[in-house]
Amino acid sequence: MKLTITLQHGSRTSEHQLALSPPANAAANGGPLAYVLDQEAGAADWAEVAPGTYSILLGGRSYEAQVTSPPAEATARDICRVVTVGTRHYRVEVRDPRRRRTAGSAVPANGPQEIVAPMPGKIVKLLVAENQEVGQGAGLLVIEAMKMQNELRAPRAGRVEKIYVVPGKGVETGSRLVRLV
Amino acid sequence: MFRKVLIANRGEIAVRVMRACREMDIRTVAVYSDVDRKALHVRYADEAYPIGPALSTESYLRIDRLIEVARRSGAEAIHPGYGFLAENPDFARACADAGLVFIGPPVAAMELMGSKTASRRALMQAGLPVVPGTDRNLETLEEVERVAGEIGYPVMLKASAGGGGKGLRLVFAPEELASAYRNARSEAQNAFNDPAIYLEKYLERPRHIEIQILGDQHGNLIYLGERECSLQRRHQKVMEECPSPLVDDDLRHRMGKTAVRIGKLAGYFNAGTVEFLVNQKRKFYFLEMNTRLQVEHPVTEMVMGIDMVKEQLRIAAGEPLRWRQEDVRLRGAALECRIYAEDPANNFFPSPGLIQRLQAPRGPGIRSDSGVYEGWTVPLEYDPLLAKLVVWGNDRAEAVARLRRALSEYEVFGIKTTIPFFRRVVDHADFVAGRIDTGFIDRALAEGILSEDEPSAELERVALLAAALDASWQWSRRSRPAPPARESAWKTAGRDALLNRWPTRGT
Question: Staple partner for B471: which of A79, B66, B329, B464, CB 3.0–4.6 Å?
């Protein structure tokens, strides 16, 4: 079974084709593994040492990967996970080959993005205007929460298509703040 | 010795105080707000009582409710921890009036040192070195402008009733003064219910070095070395160490003696900390005094080999100090990181929520003072300090290497923490060399200390394999109506829990 996997780390996103042999199933929890990654063959040994924790040996080099679910993003069809290897966090989306490719990726590199409030607070100041182009990390607005003022930043470069709030407005977790395209 | 003590606090410090009590066979009484019913300090205590809704002013700051719980539980003494009511003389007085022992200094010392201007005035009059500036509140903008002109820019506007890094504004030029004054006053009013502002000269690249003092109720007062707390973000400490890389025996002795003089001036007993700013020429100036146990007390404990909370309990119970100044010895070096629920990649935005996984570091020389556990939901309403990671080494180099190792073992999933930020700090050449000052973190952030890792094809390969194995397992499990007999129900439950399918109670 060949899987299509999108990998995102920081500002870099890449897509890969990976086939495992033998294919992992619910009964197995480890063993030798042959794989083909982006047309290159390789071998590994794997073991699930704790739920969601994989020990993977590549040519004798030992690594550990934790697979967790980003909160509020469990999707039924494709698998979207955070895989932590050492101190790095990768967001991965593994597409189910038995289904049609879904329209919107859970790891949007360029699609429109609704930026929402991560927690209740009050909008103090807007730092951008509608139609403004912003770079990744640019300050969008200032929210007051947990007794401190905090600047919310653009997760990627783009254009501010719409601002849903004004200074002084109280927001709840999940309230739409800015639409970035 | 007390038989029962009420801890008027929450989080890691409440657990830490309870540990000392447990070692001394003192029964512990916890108090909790509505969102803290499942908190670690409630689970740890021998007794626990509710004190109100989540908002601090309706719970942890309610003096009447705390006294009432003490009465009901039969607690003889109250430990206030840090923050909340720890430096509130009204609380100390209320305890005394109710016949309870307040584990801390006398009320008069709290009142003198609690006012930044009154304490500065007292020390100036005693001829002690103080950060240049005013000893009085400044009532009008004109007065502020005049004094700033006399002292010379840059200046720091400070809240007189302040602390914890709030109500501060650094002003580099006269044009900025008016708006900085307005903002400082309003922040002070909101945070401390008192808009009074005073002014200090801002020292060039100062180091924040504080002296721990400890005194009994029989007039004995000693100093227990220093702590370097220069690693701050937004004027709040994030990393501390003991001893300070800058301080030699002579400077320690002079600062320590000065701190003891200051303590005696205030009639101090129990544990307290005198904070100094030290300039590049190693001249030190009194900044303020904290009349309580400090967050960073563990680094002193590790290097001095003492348990400060136990000493606080002994002193409050009337026992004499167990050491003279000449008995005090430093051994090795300790470093502490404050692990906050904040996202360093997003300007340290608070990150409350469910902790899906938590694995703290272990092994030689590691101490972890935590107020949270795996499965706990960090609430919004309080300071986002999760835990303190403290390491000890035979010297600073070993402590730094140990801290680096410990941070690499620290796993927290579900919320963002400042752990990735600390991992970068311990690799920074200036930090490793001990070349730090209060501007270090801001400069490091501006210089891109949180820049992306270089890509690693090998680590990406591991991530892809793990993701594929996990996904295949998920799909094959779904396509079978029942798991095969070999599969452990424990493993399935663990996996479900990890993948965010906790029995929901509205996360």
Answer: A79
Nearest to B288 by CA among B82, B83, B113, B110: B113
DSSP string, A44-104: EEEEEEETTEEEEEETTEEEEEEEEPPTT---SSSEEEEEEETTEEEEEEEE-TTSPPPSS
At B405, the amino acid letter reads R
Strands A79-85 and A113-116: unpaired
**This prediction's pTM:** 0.83
Distance CA A10, CA B346 (A): 12
Calpha distance B46→B210 (Å, rounded): 35
Token couple for B249:
């025996």
CA distance B222 to B306: 14
Residue B494 pLDDT > 70: no
Q: Is the ipTM of this complex over 0.90?
A: no
Domains of chain A: 2-95 (no CATH), 113-180 (2.40.50.100)
Residue B504 pLDDT > 60: no
Starting at the earlier edge strand, list the strands of the sheet with A113-116. Answer: A113-116, A176-180, A158-163, A133-134
Average pLDDT over residues B173-189: 90
Convert the pLDDT of each residue in B22-71 to its tens digit.
999 999 999 999 999 999 999 999 999 999 999 999 999 999 999 999 99
Distance of alpha carbon B436 from alpha carbon B429, whole angstroms: 10
Tell me what pLDDT residue A71 has: 55
Please say whether the dihedral angle defined by the alpha carbons of residues A72, A78, A80 and A81, taken in this order, is positive or negative.
Answer: positive
- A positions 42-71 inside 8 Å of B (CB): 42, 44, 46, 48, 50-52, 54, 56, 58, 61, 63, 65-69, 71
- Rounded average pLDDT over B341-359: 90
Residue B463 touches chain A, beta carbons under 8 Å: yes
Give mean pLDDT, residues A43-53.
91
Nearest-CA distance B281 → chain A (Å): 34
Phi and psi torsions of A33, nearest 5°: -140, 130
B234 is catalytic: no
Residue B119: name the closest of B158, B164, B172 by CA: B158
Nearest-angstrom CA–CA distance, B462 and B383: 37
Question: How many Å apart are CA B441 and CA B430, to the nearest integer?
Answer: 11
Q: Which entry of B292, B314, B402, B424 is annotated as an active-site residue? A: B292
pLDDT digits (tens, 9 = 90+) for A110-151: 567 888 887 778 898 999 999 999 987 788 998 887 666 778
Cβ <8 Å between A67 and B351: no
Instruction: Kindly list the residues from chain A whose CB atom is less than 8 angstroms away from the CB atom of residue B458.
Output: 58, 61
For residue B489, the model assigns a pLDDT of 59
